[in-house]
Write a structure and sequence with these properties.
Number of helices: 10
Strand content: under 5%
Distance between the termini: 66 Å
Subcellular location: Endomembrane system
Oligomer: single chain
Number of strands: 2
Protein name: CDP-diacylglycerol--serine O-phosphatidyltransferase
Radius of gyration: 20 Å
Largest sheet: 2 strands, antiparallel
Order of helices and strands: HHHHHEHHEHHH
InterPro entries: CDP-alcohol_PTase-I, CDP-diaglyc--ser_O-PTrfase, CDP-OH_P_trans, CDP-OH_PTrfase_TM_dom, CDP_ALCOHOL_P_TRANSF_CS
Strand order of the largest sheet: 1-2
EC number: 2.7.8.8
Shape: globular
Structural class: mainly alpha
Membrane topology: Multi-pass membrane protein
């Protein structure tokens, strides 16, 4: 009986290492909110990118150390909502959208609601969806589009109020991309524990060097291209674009696979 009791107590514990990275990401997202409220927009944008790094590490650390847990998954979703939902929406609102009145906060709300719906849909599709692709723009990438734009604009001394309508359009569109059915590469098929050619390491070093020269510009361009890649991939893959390929319950995945099968078998579309 004593061993059973000790096992129960042990199972109720929380793994420290992966949740430490999740907490760091949550802290970065919360700091981004506070910094944006104090008009420190560059620091807020950088904090969102730091949250992205922490978010990328917590899951991989959990898998490498075999410390996955239901608590960790739920905690990660809550932290993501703060870091990639609330923080970018408030950052965009405080930087450019406040002067638009209702239109401004509605654009910020569309983004925030899109992030919440994107995270909820992702959680319900774990173990079912194709791991090679995301359905809709991932919330960290969407947050990077907003944060990268504001970071770049702040470096060039651009006043967000002068481009408030453009900022509102980008914010709302990014939110809608998160709840769309556009397919985005997840890069989860990459074996991070496997061996690579020496040239791959040199290329990785080159990427770090290029990003370090103009981090705001390079990151902003990179994530804009990634956001555009979803519609391009979807339109290129399907035979005929339908409403279900843009919004809906994900039935487009079945048609995409059927199209691939017909192409591989030599059938004409």
């Amino acid at each position: 009986m004593q061993n059973s009791s000790n096992q129960t107590v042990k199972n109720k514990g929380i793994y420290l290492l992966p949740n430490l990275f999740t907490t760091a990401g949550l802290f970065s997202g919360f700091y981004a909110v506070i910094a944006s409220m104090n008009a420190n927009f560059e620091a807020a944008a950088i904090a969102i990118f730091v949250a992205m790094i922490c978010d990328g590490l917590d899951g991989r650390v959990a898998r490498l150390t075999n410390t996955q847990s239901d608590f960790g998954a739920e905690y990660d979703s809550m932290a993501d909502m703060v870091s990639f939902g609330m923080a970018p929406a408030l950052l965009a609102y405080n930087w450019a959208l406040a002067d638009l009145g209702k239109v401004g906060w509605l654009a910020a709300f569309i983004y925030c609601a899109g992030a919440a719906l994107r995270l909820a849909r992702f959680n319900t599709q774990v173990g079912v969806a194709d791991k090679r692709y995301f359905q809709g723009l991932a919330s960290p990438a969407a947050a990077a589009v907003i944060a990268g734009s504001i970071w770049l604009g702040n470096q060039y001394s651009l006043d967000g109020k002068n481009i408030s309508w453009i900022a509102g359009l980008i914010t709302a569109t990014t939110g809608l991309l998160m709840v769309s059915n556009f397919r985005y590469h997840s890069f989860k098929e990459i074996d991070w524990r496997g061996k690579v050619n020496f040239i791959a390491i040199l290329l990785l070093v080159g990427i770090f060097v290029v990003v370090s020269v103009q981090p705001a510009l390079i990151l902003c361009i990179g994530f804009y291209l990634y956001a555009i890649s979803g519609p391009v991939i979807t339109i290129h893959t399907v035979r005929k674009l339908k409403v279900a390929h843009i919004v809906g319950d994900g039935e487009q995945d079945k048609e995409v696979e059927e199209n691939k099968s017909s192409i591989n078998s030599g059938e004409k579309p």
